[in-house]
């Protein structure tokens, strides 16, 4: 669990040395080399096409994937996946533009397609689960005596989060902090039977987490952890998320925030091995591969 199996640029160059190697990998992830006619598929030189030796049927290996309809060479795509997979704090479109020598628009599009291919799953979290919410983004200053605090808070997004200690995290943008909203988030994401739920002392949990075995820590009384009653794991995720987005991406619009959050959640949930994370990324982008 603690030993991180690395995946370096050398590994990438060994596994995916050329555009042809990338195309072959994609083809094999999604199709069989054996055609139903008895022939065998092989790549057509200089084209992103595979053809059957007997019936001449052609298959574009990238059809239906995020690599399709892109002029960016597959080896650069795979290099981008490598960068994305290894970048714990994310990689910005600006940085990718520099590294690939493509336009900002192309770099942004590639990263957006990758993030969109990594939606959070819906399996229940279980075991010891910490719940917390955070405010994110928005502009402006609350001003003197917090006069503009309401307006500033309105511009922010609210993200609800749940994390298994030592396990997976889930984080979703929610419309508000009402008990009903948070209750729904918990019901949708946390197993009510097999979970010990850890929260802060906020009153909003009183009614919504009723069926759960709940323990709470009182932040307002400067009580941050009592024994194993704490929500530090969730708070650590929030601070990593905020530092990364601020440091790497600078500003993220509300419209795309969830997909950025999805990217960081995916990274967290695949944090134990660099090489497995890279395989998992390829698997997520080529869903037929098992
Ligand atoms: Zn055939």
TrEMBL record:
It comes from Candidatus Jorgensenbacteria bacterium GW2011_GWA1_48_11. It comes from the Bacteria. This is ISSpo3, transposase. Coiled coil: none annotated. PANTHER family: DDE_TNP_IS1595 DOMAIN-CONTAINING PROTEIN, SI:DKEY-17M8.2. Residues 124-269 form the ISXO2-like transposase domain.
